[in-house]
Design goal:
heterodimer; A: alpha/beta; six-stranded mixed sheet; 37% helix; B: alpha/beta; Alpha-Beta Plaits; 2 domains; 10 helices; elongated
């Protein structure tokens, strides 16, 4: 499963960016395979005057993301992500690691239900 | 840090008036004028500009006349009728179709000057606002930029409250204003148009799971409609923070460049009541 976190750089470490559409960049984590982290820039959506949410959502679709972990997400971006079968996990956590833990435990809880 | 964003859906319901009042009642906060299309918070909060910076937000087409062969390809393909002789930058949307159809590469996109953003000092703290050139469009990008600078300043100077005067509507600049807010205050009035628009904005804010409150301005001009708005809010579990009576004194205060809380008028108490309900 490919997870995308909305993050911004704070000194040395990436911290969660609460915005989806105009996030600085995405931190992508693949739970299968290499388990490595990869960063991709969100420059195009961030710089767009209008429709940033839809831009960012199409980037997620291009990247084959399964789950987006972010703070807030606008209605059009949500629609686009949901239409592509991407789940959205909203979090208030500051560090991506904590947000990941939260998202994974939520996923497991959902499976047991 | 707490961020309170004032929105309404419909324009002219009293967002800026309420925002300016909240800023003055708070005594110390960061004020952000997110309504960059009709920026006027600075008219009510006496301010002194500390710094300003040019804004280049969009792009516009520019034609190199020495290379142009006057084939008319750009004029024919421009959906906005901007690629005339010369290019009308007020019509150009920066889509770039002219750069694609030009056979001799005489047209290119360049950054468009949209105005300036300012950091101004008020009696109650710093204010961040933009001064756009006529015709320049407000955008989510600009609102995000203003809020970014405001938050950085707030963090550095230990502010605990930010008040954003939001734009009307439910579009991109509104969504950019809501993002990162801890609470949203919706200002409405008992008119058909305002009631229709508050429903749309409540629906929008519900997407963000951010607490929201409603204030009914000029509530006594049509009491029946006020009841309908209150019933709608109850149904959607949106608390009504308070109601502001119709008071010609507000208009007089605004005309002399004051927020209503500075004037000795009956509606002043209504605004104070809303502030108290909001802050506690």
């Amino acid at each position: 499963m490919k997870l995308a976190f909305t993050v911004k750089q704070e000194k040395l470490f990436p911290v969660m960016d609460e915005r989806f559409a105009r996030t600085e960049k995405f931190l992508i984590y693949d739970t299968d395979g290499s388990r490595g982290f990869k960063e991709i820039s969100n420059k195009e959506a961030r710089e767009s005057q209008q429709g940033a949410g839809v831009h960012a959502a199409s980037l997620m679709i291009e990247q084959g993301i399964d789950c987006v972990i972010t703070g807030t997400c606008g209605p059009k971006a949500r629609k686009a992500l949901e239409a592509a079968g991407i789940t959205i996990h909203l979090t208030a956590k500051k560090s991506p690691a904590e947000a990941l833990k939260e998202a994974l435990s939520q996923c497991q809880a959902d499976q047991y239900e | 840090m707490r961020t309170i964003t004032v929105l309404s859906g419909k324009g002219g319901t009293g967002k800026t008036t309420l925002s300016a009042s909240l800023v003055e009642l708070s005594r110390r906060c960061i004020a952000v004028d997110c309504d960059t299309g009709a920026s006027n918070l600075h008219l009510l909060l006496q301010s002194r500009t500390m710094s300003n910076e040019d804004l280049y937000l969009g792009s516009t087409a520019q034609r190199d006349d020495s290379a142009c062969i006057s084939c008319g390809a750009c004029r024919k393909s421009c959906a906005f009728h901007a690629a005339g002789e010369p290019i009308d930058t007020s019509l150009c949307q920066g889509c770039g179709v002219c750069t694609l159809v030009c056979p001799v590469d005489a047209v290119k996109l360049v950054n468009r000057y949209d105005g300036i953003w300012k950091r101004s000092e008020t009696e109650n703290g710093m204010m961040f606002h933009a001064d756009m050139v006529p015709g320049a469009e407000s955008s989510g990008k600009l609102v995000t930029l203003l809020k970014h600078h405001a938050y950085a300043y707030a963090q550095k100077h230990q502010y605990s409250l930010t008040i954003c005067d939001g734009p009307p509507g439910i579009g991109c600049p509104v969504i950019a204003s809501i993002t990162g807010s801890s609470e949203v205050v919706l200002v409405t009035e008992p008119t058909e148009a305002a009631f229709a628009d508050i429903q749309r904005i409540i629906e929008l804010v519900e997407n963000f799971s951010i607490p929201m409150y409603v204030c009914i301005n000029r509530w006594d001009i049509w009491k029946e409609m006020t009841c309908r708005i209150e019933a709608y809010c109850r149904k959607h579990s949106v608390p009504v923070l308070g109601k502001i009576r119709y008071d010609p004194g507000i208009r007089e205060a605004l005309n002399s460049g004051m927020s209503p809380v500075r004037a000795d008028i009956p509606s002043r108490n209504d605004v104070i009541h809303i502030y108290t309900a909001l802050i506690q």
